[in-house]
Amino acid sequence: MRRPEPRDKREVQFPRFFILCLCLIYEVKNGSDVGELRRTENWYNFMERIEECAVNLLAAYGSGDNETLLKQAKFLAYRISRNENQFCRLTHYYIVAKALDKLLDLDDQLNFSDALYGSIIKLIYYCLLRNYLEYSDLPHTDTKYADLVGGCELAFVIICENINFIMYNIIGGSLQSLPNKSEEIIRNQLLLFGGIVKNSIENHYQHFSEEQLSNRFKRDSAPLYPFLLTGDYLEVFKIGYKSTIHDICKKMEIHKLTKNDDDFFVPF
Predict the structure, then answer these.
(1) Does any domain span residue 1?
(2) How far is residue 100's CA from residue 94's CA, in Å, rounded to a whole number?
(3) Which of 118, 169, 160 is nearest to 12 (CA)?
(4) Closest among 58, 54, 22 to 194, alpha carbons compared
(5) Least packed by Cβ within 10 Å: which of 123, 132, 161, 250?
(6) Does residue 196 lie within any of the structural domains?
(7) Which residue segment(s) compose the domain that 60 sits in?
(8) Three-class secondary structure of residue 20 per DSSP
(9) What total number of domains does the chain contain?
(10) Cβ–Cβ contacts within 10 Å for residue 18, how many?
(11) How far does CA 90 lie from the centroid of its chain?
């Protein structure tokens, strides 16, 4: 697997985006897969620890507490390396996705392996798709609508910054989609996620966006912005495309997101 270039050295592939835009729940098996897990409560303890760590990582990132930041980052990295399927039953996918996005910024300090770096991108992508499925039907007056818009904004940016990896390694590789199908999926997701953010901006729907993320979105969406869907066109597209995103999530779960099934229930 070819590792995506570090964010600060990678230029967004605007021409390719322009062309593209125009044109588990995990099922526990019988036997050894159950490992040392004896009660369902233990599973949710793992999930809670991941989400708690994500919240702490974001807090440390905002406060500048580098010691706590690295501690929480190492925990998340450890959980990913043990088994990515632990991220399939989260409660707050958007929070975890934001924390994983910050985790990528720490690569220069933690020196992630190529495999782990790719896994982080894959999990951000997965968490943001799950976030979309959870909140896509909410009206803009709902307080959680901000999580939908924020998740779409981050999803658009992550796809733009890692388009070849997501298109060919995840969709074309792990999910075994044909190249032309992979390009169609990415094109539609950029239209959808970018359109939701644009629609929110133009209609003055309230949502909080970090300055750094907002700047990344403005940079990445600049050549595409006039073509992003809004209004009734966006609503029709959302209805028709939701099943596709659901199918992608299920395929990622079925293909296990990871190869470390023997470590699935090994405690930290």
Answers:
(1) no
(2) 10
(3) 160
(4) 22
(5) 250
(6) yes
(7) 40-258
(8) helix
(9) 1
(10) 13
(11) 13
What is the rounded end-to-end Cα distance, in angstroms, of the chain?
A: 27
Q: How far apart are CA 104 and CA 60, in angstroms?
A: 15
- For the record, the structure tokens of 201 come out as 């901006």
Does 267 fall in a domain? no
- Give the pLDDT confidence of 230-241 residue by residue, as tens digits: 999 999 999 989
Burial 50-82 (b: 16+ CB within 10 A, else e): bbebbebbbebbeeeeeeebeebbebbbebbbb
Q: Side chain identity at 213, as an amino acid letter?
A: L
Residue 34 falls inside a structural domain: no
Crossing angle of helices 114-135 and 231-254, in 10° steps, is: 130
Beta carbons of 252 and 175 less than 8 angstroms apart: yes
Task: Show the tokens assigned to 246.
Answer: 């659901």
The tens digit of pLDDT for each residue in 211-267 reads 999 999 999 999 999 999 999 999 999 998 999 999 999 888 887 654 444 433 333
